[in-house]
Design brief:
By secondary structure, this protein is mainly alpha-helical. It has four helices and no strands. The radius of gyration is 22 Å and the shape is flat.
Length: 87
């Protein structure tokens, strides 16, 4: 059953991949850096790039700290809320 599921998921992703790329009209309207990535209008100015990169940095920090605290939660410290509640 696991092999059939893997094949079905691979097939769906393989069929969906060409749909996710930009069409010729959208490709010509996108900036060179974002060409062929998405449909629609690209960033209109420097403020759009600033917003996008700021969001990317916030996501990167969030991902880093979530993985860090999942791997080593440091719950054995006396100031941890679990120890305060259990006392």
């Amino acid at each position: 059953m696991g092999k059939v599921k893997t094949i079905l998921v691979s097939l769906v992703l393989f069929i969906y991949a060409p749909v996710s790329f930009a069409c010729e009209v959208c490709k010509s309207n996108q900036p060179k850096m974002l060409e062929d990535i998405t449909h629609g209008q690209g960033p209109q100015g420097n403020a759009d790039y600033l917003i996008t990169w700021s969001a990317a940095v916030i996501v990167a920090f969030t991902l880093f700290f979530s993985i860090k605290y999942l791997v080593k939660p440091k719950e054995n410290r006396p100031g941890h809320i679990k120890n305060i509640v259990l006392e």
